Amino acid sequence: MTDAGQRDARRARRLIWLSRLGGVLLRVLAHTWRIRYVNREPVAALMGAGQPVVLVLWHGELLPILWTQRLRGLVALISEHGDGEILARVALSLGYHTVRGSTSRGGGRALLGMSRAIEDDGRSLVFTPDGPRGPARTFAPGALIVAQRTGAPVVTLAAGASRAWRLTSWDSFLIPKPFARVTVAYGDPVVIDAATVRKAAEQAARFETLLNATSAVANGD
Hints:
The protein has eight helices and nine strands.
């Protein structure tokens, strides 16, 4: 095996090990959380009736939401960067399906894959519109484009915790501490009223405000 091949093999083994460890640690930690939901009924009614939705959340609040939305067959858009590979493996272990890419890398292909997950499979979607690299809490329009194309309503989703660690990362990544009270808040479903994808994309600032408002509810602000 060449030096490059050996490096690739070591990297693959490292990613597998880290993803397995991350999945185990998340399960152990999350089983101690005390979780409450705010305004879950409207989206639960839609999904219960077979209506796919587009869930949008800030990247920094992803961990508790990844746990609370598990085992529902949701399709998550996850970046093709190295840390995205770890996240994708953890998400798969929690019952998610994944589409790889972002608005900055593999964007067109990724949005097409997400659209097909609704149109062909009737699955609901998960987007982090400020991921994978930020700027934090800046709403990129990819989720709105998919919602406009498919007619699926957009639902803002956020999480907060009574006690948590915040990483020194670009998104101040939230890790609720053991036995923390975790609040998961939903916004009301919103259908994109736009004749074209360009008009849909122009609503990004509006949805940034809506998502920040939902995050404020989850964090008790």
